[in-house]
Amino acid sequence: MTLDPAYVTIVRRHLRFLGDGDLSPDQPLDELGLDSMGMLALLFDVEDAYGVTIPEDDMLRETFRTARTLWSAVEAVRAG
């Protein structure tokens, strides 16, 4: 699965500890500075950018574990 470059840009804005380094799709986002408040901000940004609403059942820490896991949730909603 390839991550949309615009999505990567959105995620990067919420990672305090990433700096100028590359974002691996499987890096744990919490290790890069994403906390619970950051998860909400990231969620709102992603939902706005992609015109989706992530279901409440998917509002789990696991969904926000990596850029790939969150992108999978976005793609699932987009696919219907």
CATH class: Mainly Alpha
Going by CATH, the architecture would be Orthogonal Bundle
What's the end-to-end separation, in Å? 18 Å
SS elements, strand count: 0
- Estimated share of beta-strand residues: under 5%
Please tell me the total number of domains: 1
Helix share bin: 40-55%
Structural class by sheet pairing and helices: mainly alpha
Task: Give the SSE string.
Answer: HHH
Low-confidence stretches: none
Q: How many helix segments?
A: 3
Give a written overview of the molecule.
- The structure is a single chain.
- By secondary structure, the chain is mainly alpha-helical.
- It has helices at 5-12, 36-50, 67-79.
Ordered list of secondary-structure elements with their pairings:
Elements lengths: L4 H8 L23 H15 L16 H13 L1
In short:
The protein is mostly helical and 80 residues long.
Keywords:
80 residues; globular; 0% strand; 3 helices; mainly alpha; Non-ribosomal Peptide Synthetase Peptidyl Carrier Protein, Chain A
